[in-house]
Every structure is written in structure tokens, then in C-alpha cells.
Amino acid sequence: MVTVAAANGWEAGDVPRTGAGLGSVHRGQDAESNDSSDSEYDPVGDVPLRWYDGYDHVGYDLEGARIVRKRPPSALERLAGTEAADDWRVLYDARSGNEIRLNDDQVALLLRLCEGSSAGGGGDVGGGTEEVIAWAPSQPHPLDSATESRRRFEPSRHEARQVAYLVRGLREGRIRPMRVLLREREEQRSLRRYHYDLWGGESEEAAADAPLSRAARAHQTRRLPPPKPLPPGHAESYNPPPEYLPTDGEAEAWRKADPEDRLLPFLPRRYASLRQVPAYEHLLRERFERCLDLYLCPRVLKSRERIEDPATLLPPLPDPHELRPFPSADRLRYVDAAAAAATVPSRLRAVAVYPGSGQWLATAAEDGHVRVFDVMSGCLLQRWNVAEMLCGAGYRPDAGSGNAAGGETAAAVAMPVVDVRWIPAAIFGDETAATLDAQSVQHPPYLVAACDACVVLFAVPLPATTLAPDSVDDRLTHADTPVGEAPPGVEWQMHDDVALGRRFLLIRHPQRVRRLEVHHRGDYLSAVVGHHAARTTVYIHQLSRRRSHIPFRKRLSTVQCTAFHPSRPFFFVASQQHIRVYSLTTQSLAKRLLPGVKWISSLTVHPGGDHVLCGSYDRRLCWFDLDAGERPYRSMHNFDRAVRAVAVHDALPLFACADDSGRVHVFHGTVYDRLDQDPLLVPLCTMRGHQPVDGLGVFSVAFHPRLPWLFSVGADGQCVLWVERG
Amino acid sequence: MVAERRKKGQRGHAAAYMTRAKALRKLQLSLTDFRRLCILKGIFPREPRKKRADARHTYYLNKDIQYLAHEPLICKFRELHAHLRKVKRARARREHARAAQLQRSAPVYSLDHLVRERYPTFRDALEDLDDALTTIHLFAEMPQLPMRQTNVSSSGDGYLPIDRQRLDNFARLAQEWQYFVASCPGALRKVFVSVRGYYFEACVQGVRILWAQPHRFHQCVPDEVDLRIMSTFLEFYECLLRMVNFRLYHSVLGTRYPPVWNAEQDHADGLLAQRFRTGRVGKDRARRPPAATETRISSERVAAVKAQLPEVVRAAVAEEVDEERPPAEKATVATRAPDATAPELPGDETTHIPLHSNATIFRGMTFFLCRETPVHVLEMVLRACGADAVGFEAVEARASPLNEADARITHVICDRPVEQLTSRRLGREYLQPQWVFDCVNESFRLPYGLYTVGQPLPPHLSPWASLTDVADTELQGEVNAHGEYVPAYRQYLQRIKRGERNVPLPPELSSEVVQGAVTRTETPPAALVEADEEAGAWAEQGALTTDHPTGRPRPAAAAAAAEPSDRQQLAKMMLSRRKRRLYDRLVARQRRAAQQATALQDKRARLLKPSDSDLHQ
């Protein structure tokens, strides 16, 4: 015990005095100490005072009655009753219920204890040994008799190493005292670290030269500044104009709408003065969302032209008025009184203008009639019921045909005339095609019409012709002998119609004829034949020699239409998505055109022969330059419905197309001789004159051979002449 | 030899991007740290043309991630995590002294190098200052945040808590910025009071800066707002704004930064001017004298301002340099000059001449702000636009440089009912705050008649919507050149600014005008005209009628003008598909704008109808 006390630096001499000093304070443990005279006995006894916690008494007297606990004076009482300056010396003893006044020695002792110094005061260090013995009377000797280790008296090597390490670290600056470290950290943390001119000197140029790492410079090139939010509009004002305030309906719609769909996140409201404006509750959330956008939202650079006026996008086209003449207004409608009387007018499928002079007009109707009108006067000259003629010739609709009605007479079956073409009279006589005009017509012209599976050729006795029809029929008869063999199913037949008193030529096909095309000289006919659009055959007939053949060994599927080149031996075949150009001399494929459309509807070759037009059911019109390549030179798109018919003017730089909305579009198309100059295509006008019926509008358009006139027939049974607006 | 097979997505465009997960693996960072790094470095996801892995993933540029990998901040983050672990362990062992000491020695990082990298030139920094200013201003007005939100660092993820000290810093930064704007004449271009708060637009060194400041109210923090993210943003914005302020104070104002904070005025709701005592930079730093600074600021509008740049402003700046004088005296000095040189009071005819410079709108005027007005906003606006002196109503009279009884006061801005305006004095204009804002937006001292206290206010219009050119005399009815609807009050202001006399008020305002409102001479003649006469005159001007002799198109006609003509429809056929779609989009946009304009016009006509019938009865 002595050793321990000595090792701890406690001095044994202090102990008895300490005990005497404390005795006055803790009297309960030191009963024989009589420093204070005011307490004779301890009523509580030697028990912990906490036993009486929560009770009003602190023990029992000799009679067993409770000794009531005395309350210490409260702070307020003490304050009220304070008169002496040394009132702080008074302590309350809960055990006895008495107040104890500390004397000077006791206060000094307490102060020493608070400082942590020795209780007995620093003055008497190294007191006598008697007290030690008195304090520990039973242990007069040290507990063990081991000799002290030598190390106890030598400086520690480990500590020396530690000190050396620290000194070296301090000298090298590797170790910094915590005080210095903390001061440095405080300085680093202070905002003064940002108080310097980051961007260098005065000028921006100097800043640009300032060192920036290569990676940082490269990063600058990838920089995409975030888009700035739109500045607020009138509706966000605290006092917006009244027209920006929502009506009841608008407010209701705003409340019902999803928050994502609302244009403003709050309802505009008018406050009569600025002091009435309340807090805006979503402010922090909106800022937070902006922050999220800034670091979470993927950014992509989209170069967008700022175009205020969309008209600047449109190409600079010449004024249509400078490109006159062109048809722009309807002048005349060609009406057959008998057909017009019908409740439902039959559709007109095709229109053909007499080439050369353009005096006459032939239309093909779905009721089986071919009608010939005078172009100028609009009067009906001739009417042929082709269906009846076929019946008279003993033709029965094929069983596979869609029009088949077993057992019925053919007359009762509606056999629509799908196509009609003029054939110049010269081919059967000795005149040349060049002399075909109104003045020199001597022979009546021929019409060829496609009806069901037959192609019918007959002469049209018109008033301007000089020869009688009979002699014309004779001419047909003369060229009677077939030279070559006809393909299976094709049959040429000459028929004398007793009722009409005339004869006509009949070419029967195995299946329905869908399209008819005539070579510009009139000697050759091509027919697209097939019950279904997906399985078609192309036939070419030579009228002068009554010869037929199938030009393609393989069956071409889905042939939409065909065309002859106007001057050279080429043949155009349009399938659903391609146009093939065959050379008739070498009998091989010369070219393939790719319009890029889904379904071709019509095909026309420009009279110059170097350009091809095709319309499509997916609302496009393509202009091909055969010299330029297989893709269209220009596609025109802005049609409402499927483009069904295309036509090019023979003499004027005009072309036209018609769509299923019943509109006819006229374009200007100049083709230049110079090879380096592209064709000039200008849309001229859009004309509305046909009513669409069952989603079908105009079926066919044809130009007058010389004048800027256009003819169109449609599903509403109308045949319209379009001329230039006067 | 067989050519080596190339795997898909290893070359070309697709290989230039990596997903976020891959970036995390590459950088060896936790998602939290990666996000912090992205926020601080300004890295953001990109949208590749073709997404290699999955369309739902977030993609970053490979180069961006490489750039992040070399960031020294990553090491600091790791140090920070190690440090947090130590703190956590000390706390768990109840070694509180050690934990406290550790906390004091936490690793510190600074962000100035990031500012330099992100904004190589000062102009870049100014251009991207909008978000920083708005966020700092929002948090500057924030009271103490709730504990659960502020105590974000205790979770051990190393975020700086948004404590009181930081909030004070934000407030201080915001005030420094406001002080800069206020002491830079002509910099403030537009002010708009919205339901959300105040929007300001300033032009600093030719860069347009738009920021917002909330109304002074308690902001509640919704649960969905993650303050840790905001804290990271604020960390960067604080640094950025501090460095921008430093440069602006030094190069533009020519004063010391940070400005000396006036401790007595710190917590009093005083004026900006009193809170700061800016000192001039030492001679080696101040290469530009203050007067030259002023001319440089106004160089954008040289012709307009130069002649009018008053000695007053220069004197004020020169006086501000003097630190010895108390603020009240400074104001006195500043106002003395106009009193002597410009005896004409506002209200004479010269005030109608458009000055077209914001620097001199309130020149020669001394303002007194009542306590219900937004003093902090108004002071900045007034001082930025050339007011001579601004006083405000304060509990302690000495807080304000101007006493209410001061004879120099020419304008009192107050926002209370007339009956509560007890001490009105002759020779003063009692105006509502909106007058100040509208004047700034129009760059023009507006007539007082519509804005006097107790009047129903004219609408407060956004200065960024339905803009019209002053020179554009042919305003197309109620639609401007861009097809936007122009409210009637803006048209009225335009005509006044053009110098037209006897401009009739819009009918919806004229019915509200208090008859015979006693104003001095600033009231436009029209305001004194009988209300029904005005309505008639307005109608005569053709804003609402259909057949006007001057041939202004009707609203419907204006809407129809957006429809393409037949010829344009035809020419559209010749466009390629891409251009045709673009054309269609543009036309549709025009049509939509026209429809909106028409709807607003119709609504206004409907609103006016009953009042018209009332007038004619």
C-alpha cells in the first residue's frame, strides 16, 4: 500500500489531516469527530439516506415516530433572506437536517481538492514515516522483496526511439503538431481560399493563354451548356391582365389534368397589391427538379435552324402566271343524256382524245358503253354498247372472271369497259401517221376498247370522214389472214353485227383485260391480262398482221401498266414497285427504275422519250430522267389521296396527275436540250371538279394534243374539260 | 489469313459511350460519390444515337469518364471516407474527445480548379450564372432547415450539412451580388414580380443574366427534395459565385472583396448600402479609376448614357470609396448635387421624353420605402436605376439614412390602403411598388396616375413576353410581329413611349380609374377624361372593332395569315420529305400561336362586353 501510494505521488503524511478535515463535512462516517457542536446524535443511523428517497421522513426516533425531513431553504428563500455576504458558506446536511457553515480552512481544503492538488496543501511534502505506519499498521514491510530492475534506473530506449522519430518528423515537416494542423485546416476551410482573381489578368486573351490542362481543353470541346429555362410570361405575374386569368371551366380542366400535362404548375391569380402575395409552395421542389435535370438528364446536341417564316423553306419557283397557258378552270362537261338519267351514274374508267386533231373524245364507262363526243360542242356523236356487241358475237364471260354469272345471258351481266384508245385510220390504209389531222381525215378512225376478257376494235363513222363505214369495215376484212401463231387462249375473230349492220374485230384472251396501251403508230397493242393483280400476263398484238405473242418467257407478276417508247424500240413495264425498260430489238432488259414507292398506279413516257412519269397509290408522283439514274429526279408528295392517273402533254411543257380526292393537279415541266440542265418542274394549280365516290376520285386524265386543254373522267361519272381561265 | 473478327459495338459511335454501371466500375466509386463528382465537374449523361447495351441505361461519354478519372477530388473523397470511418469508430467507442478532434481535422478540398476548368473565360462563367444565382438566392432566404435534413453528414456519406453558417454565407453572397447590381448603373435591365418571386435580368459585361429571388416567406422543405444533392450543387455555386463576385468587385467596381460587413447593421433589416463598406483596392490592383469603370459599364449604350451619366453617380462612387463617413452622410452628399443642379422636379414635361437607359430612370429622385414594401428588392432596383437616395421605415430611426420627415424625399413607395396612410405630405408622390418595376421594364419613367396609392393597379406584364419594338408603329392589331398576343396595356405604354399625346387608356383600366385622382402633373391627360369617352376612343382606334379605316387586320385575319396560301401549298410539293415535315411543323406552330392569340383576344372581348354595356347605360 505504501509502495502504491509512493508510486502515485501521494504523500502519506497528508492522510490523517485529510481525515480530520473532512470529518466536519461527513459526520455520519466519522462520529467521534466533534468539530461542530450543534449535532448531538444521528437520528438516521448508519444506513444510506437513499432508502428514504420519496418519503417525507428520514428515520425514526426512540419512540418509533417518524422524524420529519427538514427541507433545505429554496433558492428563492435564500435570496429573499440573504443578508450576509458569506452566505455561500452555508451547506445543508440532509441527514441531520442542519445547516453547516464552512470555516476558512474547510474552504481552502475544498478549493485544493477542486484544483486536483493534494488535500493537505503543497507545503509539507515528504512528511514523517510515522503516519504511514499509523495508516497501515498491519504491513510494516514492503509486500515483495524482489530487487529493483536495472531498467528502472536507465533511460528507456523505446522512448528514445520514439522521440528521435518525432524530432526527425518535426524537422522534416512530415509531422506537424496538432495545433498547427488544426490551424491549417481552418485556413483551408475558410472562404478566403476563393478570394483571388481566378481568370487571370485584365484581359480575356491573357485568361485564354493561362494554363489549362490538355484534358480540360479537350473537355471544353465536348461541352454542352444546359438549356436555360424559359423566362416567365404574363400569366405568371402577380397581377396578370384579366384575359390571362382562367375561367371556371379552364380552372376545372387544370385541376383535373395530370400535373405533367399542365402548362403552368399553378393557376394564375390576381393580387390587388404586392403585399398580399403569399409564399409559393413549390419553389424548393422546382429548383430541386432543375438541379436533377442538370446532372441526370441526358443531353444531346441538336442543330436546329431558327426559321421564323416557314415560307423561306419553299423553293424559289417562277410565278405560275409566267408559265401560262395551262388548264386551270373547268369549261365543259360531256354528258350523255341517257346515262345522266340513271339514278346512279356509272363510273367512267378511261378517256381518250383523238390524236392529231383532237376533235373527238371517247370515254369508257362501267355500264359497258363507249361514248364518242365532239370536243368543241360537247355533243354526243356515237354510243356503243360494247357489252352487247360481245354478247352478239357469242362471247360468254369466263367462269373465272369476277363478272361471271352462270346461266345468265351475257347481256344481263355488267361488263365494264376498262380502257379505250384511238387507233389512227392510217394503219389499214396507205396514209402515214404524219398526215393525221382533221383536214386530211378520209377514213373514219378506229377505237379499241377493253371489256372483260376481250379487246374490241371497231371503226367509228364520224361526220368529218369522207369514206362510208362499210368500206372501212371492208378494210378490216382485207387484213384477214393471221400470219403467225397465236398464244393459247388468244383468238382473233371477225364478227358481223346484224343489229348494227357492221362488223368488228374481236380479240379474245384467256383472262380479263386490265390495261390497254397502243403504240404511237397504232399497229401494236399491248394488253395486261389477268383475273388478279398478282398474276398477270402481258400480250402484244400486231393489228396489221393479226399476230399475237407473249414477249416474256417468264410470267411477270403484278404488272400494273405498260408503255411504248414514243420514238425508239423500248417497252416499259411497271410492276408493283419497279419499272423495267426492255429493248425490243435486243429483247433484253435495258434498264430498271426504282421509284421507291409501295404501289405504282400509272405510267407515262414523256414525248421527248428521255423522261418517265409514274404515279403511285401511296400518294406520290415521280419524275424520272432516264439518263440520270434509276432513282427519280424529283418526287412530288403533297397529295391527299392515291394518285391514279398521269398524263403528259404532247406539244406543250405540261403534265398532270389526278388523285382519289377528285383533284386534278397541273404541273409545268420544261425539258432542256442541254444535258447539264435539269428539267424545270413547277406545280401550277390544283383543280377541284370531281366528287369522290366510295373513296374513288378521278380515273383517267388526257391532254388535248395541241391546245392546253385537259380532260378528266371520274368515279362520279363526269367527264370534264379543263381550260385556261379566261 | 482470316481477317480478325470484330465484335459488335467495339468501334465507331457506339464505342464512344459507356453505361453508368461501367463507369462506376472503372472509377471505383460509389454511386453517391460518382454523382457528387458529376455535379461538381459538370459531367452529364449523353444520348447516343444507338444504344449498345440497353435503351434504359444511362450513357456517359468515354472521354468524360476518363476525364473524371484524373480528378484529384477522387483522392479527397477517399480520404474523406477514411476519415469518416475514423470518426465513426471513435464515436462508437465513446471516445468523444478524439471524435471531436478528428472532426476538426477533417480533410478539406477546394473547388476553384473546377471553376477554372468548367469556365475557362470569365464570360463562360457569367453565361452559366443563372442557376447559381437562383439557387443561392433561394437558400439565402431559407430559415434554419429542419434537423433531419441538415444533419446529412452523420450518415457518413461526406456531404456538407446545410447549417446556419452556410445559410448565412449564402445570404451574404446574395447580398454581395445585389450590392454589385445596385452599384452598377444600368446593369439591371428587367424586373418581374411573379407568383413565384422576383425575376431580374441584368446585363453584365454584355452577358444577359436572369435570376430569381423568392418572396420573403418561410419555405417548407418537401420530403421528395433531397437536400444532399442540393448541398453539392450549393457547394459549387458558392465557390463560383464567390469568385465571380471577386472579379466583378475588383474589375468593375474597383473595390475590395469581400466588402467590409457592417456589424451593427447585420441583423437589422437595413439597406444593402449600409451593410457594406466597400474599400478601394490598393493602388497596385486598381488600374482603372472608378470614373472609367462607370464609362465602361455603360459602353453598351454609350450614346444614350454617356451624355446623361451624371456627376452624381460618379460622385456617389467616389464617396463610397471614402470609408470614414457614415452611410447616412454619404447619401447626403450624393443627393446634394441634384438638388443644386437639377431644380426641376419630376412631373414637368421633360419626364415624357424617353431616356431608354435604365441607368438614369430615377435620376434626381429620393425615395422613402414604407415597411410593408419589399425593401431589399426595391433598394437594389432603385439604386441600380439611378435613384439619388433611398430611405426606409425602420423601428430605430437611425437605421435609415433618411428620416421620414426629411425634406429631400420626393417619392414614397408604399403598399397600404389609403386610410392607413396617416402622414401624407404635400410635394411627395405616394406610389405603389409596381410603378418602380414597370418603369424599369419600359426604361421609361411612367406617369404616376395609374400607380398612386389606393388605385387599382394596371396589369403587371412580363418583360420577356409579347415584346414589341418601340419604333414599330404598325402594331398589327393586338398581335406583334411574332404573332404573339400583346396585352392592351403594353400597347398603351408603347404609344406613350413613342411620345404620342392624348393616348386613351384601355377600356378595362379606364373604368377603374378613380375619377379626379389628385396627382400632380404627371397624370396623362387621358386619365382625366371621362371613362366612357375613353372606351369609345379606344374602340375608335380599332383595337376591338373590325372595320377600321386605317386597315388594321382583324384578329381573325391575322390568324388566317398563318395559313399557307395556295401557291405555298403547291410549292410544298417540291420539298423533300425532311423539309416538308419541318415546314409542316413550323406552320402548325404558327397556327397554334395564332390560335392562342385569338383565344386571348376573344376572352378579352368577352370580358369587356358587360363593362361596355354598363358604361352606356
From TrEMBL, chain A:
GO terms for biological process: maturation of LSU-rRNA from tricistronic rRNA transcript (SSU-rRNA, 5.8S rRNA, LSU-rRNA). Gene3D superfamilies: YVTN repeat-like/Quinoprotein amine dehydrogenase (2.130.10.10). One of its GO terms (molecular function) is ribonucleoprotein complex binding. The keyword Heme does not apply. Residues 32-43 have a biased composition (Acidic residues). Residues 13-45, 209-248 are annotated as: Disordered. It is found in: Nucleus, Nucleolus. Residues 52-327 form the BOP1 N-terminal domain. Pfam families: BOP1NT (PF08145), WD40 (PF00400). Its main location: nucleus. This is BOP1 N-terminal domain-containing protein. It comes from the Eukaryota. Keywords: Nucleus, Repeat, Ribosome biogenesis, rRNA processing, WD repeat.
Automatic annotation (TrEMBL), chain B:
It comes from the Eukaryota. Its main location: nucleus. It holds the Pfam family Pescadillo_N. It is found in: Nucleus, Nucleolus; Nucleus, Nucleoplasm. Residues 601-617 have a biased composition (Basic and acidic residues). GO terms for molecular function: ribonucleoprotein complex binding; RNA binding. Keywords: Nucleus, Ribosome biogenesis, rRNA processing. InterPro entries: BRCT_dom, BRCT_dom_sf, PES. GO terms for cellular component: nucleoplasm; PeBoW complex; preribosome, large subunit precursor. Gene3D superfamilies: BRCT domain. One of its GO terms (biological process) is maturation of 5.8S rRNA from tricistronic rRNA transcript (SSU-rRNA, 5.8S rRNA, LSU-rRNA). This is Pescadillo homolog. It comes from Cyanidium caldarium (Red alga). The lineage of its organism: Eukaryota, Rhodophyta, Bangiophyceae, Cyanidiales, Cyanidiaceae.
